[in-house]
């Protein structure tokens, strides 16, 4: 049995059975609280949902940049998306 690390305040682990709006609301809340970077993680069935979340946040906010990394562990694919809110001058 693997023990996963506890999520940091700016990390979101997406589950395939949770509704996408739950994650979008949380990311917006973090950005409105002044957090500049949010990390979204998803494995296997959650990958598509992670991408949809990142694209919707990108559509709703001006000045969002993102970096995408992929991984694999125990024959499961994963995605890790870093969303960064740029300061607008």
TrEMBL record:
It comes from Paramecium octaurelia. This is DNA/RNA-binding protein Alba-like domain-containing protein. It comes from the Eukaryota. The lineage of its organism: Eukaryota, Sar, Alveolata, Ciliophora, Intramacronucleata. GO terms for molecular function: nucleic acid binding. Residues 10-70 form the DNA/RNA-binding protein Alba-like domain. InterPro entries: DNA/RNA-bd_Alba-like.
